[in-house]
Design a protein that fits this description.
Radius of gyration: 19 Å
CATH architecture of the largest domain: 3-Layer(aba) Sandwich
Number of helices: 11
Shape: globular
Structural class: alpha/beta
CATH class of the largest domain: Alpha Beta
Helix content: 25-40%
Number of strands: 9
Strand order of the largest sheet: 3-2-1-7-8-9
């Protein structure tokens, strides 16, 4: 393991383009629960309203019963409120330099990568603090949902507002996906998978593609995942602790 840290440290030192694909495991180190935990789903997967959390937080439910959907969207925001970036977020931001481009493609909706200072963040599932109008698309960034009415309205056209997040049954944001494709076309020197199970194709595909081209793949995850066999280097420790050690190997 010690040699792995040194080898990846050397890769980081010489790299000019890095990709970090991050998931719930990174946010968990800032004490942010998963969707299931934040929406108070019970052991059987049902919410207190007798519906699966996937159904409560779906596009269909939002359109048919926005009051119910917003109840759980407020719970999600409350689970994030006051949370701050952890060591993993800070290391990814610190790796940026005039000679090193760092792209973060995250499935997390908490905005902590930007708060830590990362400049190129592709939010694959959106950002819960960005509230957007369902009619005119006017958007507003909210530090907190505290004090918002149960059914927020657009200040411009009075249509229903919603967080700019990808609900279940909805498609990923087209512009974000296009940016992700452009970043991949430019190529990366090292690809990191951090705190994610990589179950979604849009998360695993860039890793498969990198592996086919001979680009080093690094996985940081306590559990083995569907892409573990592709990783040239695999670390089972916490993301923050592992990334800090890798920075030390760089002499930074």
């Amino acid at each position: 393991m010690k040699n792995n840290f040194a080898a990846v440290g050397r890769l980081l030192e010489s790299s000019k383009r890095l990709l970090f694909i991050t998931g719930a495991g990174v946010s968990a180190e800032s004490k942010i629960p998963t969707f299931r935990g934040a929406t108070a789903a019970f052991a059987d997967g049902m919410t207190e309203d007798g519906m699966p959390f996937e159904e409560v937080l779906s596009g269909t439910t939002f359109r048919a019963n926005p009051t119910l959907a917003w109840k759980y969207l407020f719970k999600l925001e409350q689970s994030i409120r006051g949370k701050t970036p952890n060591a993993a977020h800070r290391v990814m931001a610190a790796l940026q330099s005039p000679r090193r481009h760092v792209c973060v493609a995250t499935q997390n909706i908490d905005g902590l990568h930007q708060q830590a200072g990362s400049r190129v963040v592709l939010e694959l599932h959106g950002n819960i603090r960005r509230v957007i109008c369902t009619r005119c698309q006017y958007s507003d960034y909210r530090e907190t949902f505290e004090g918002m009415p149960p059914l927020p309205r657009c200040p411009r056209c009075d249509a229903m507002a919603r967080p700019d997040v990808v609900l279940y049954e909805e498609s990923l944001p087209v512009l974000v996906l296009e940016s992700f494709v452009r970043e991949q076309e430019r190529g990366f020197d090292v690809v990191f998978s951090v705190g994610t199970t990589s179950l979604f194709p849009y998360v695993s595909q860039p890793i498969w593609s990198a592996a086919r081209r001979g680009v080093p793949v690094v996985e940081i995850n306590p559990e083995r995942t569907v892409i573990s066999s592709l990783a040239n280097y695999r670390f089972a420790g916490p993301a923050g602790e592992t990334l800090q050690q890798l920075m030390r190997e760089m002499g930074t």
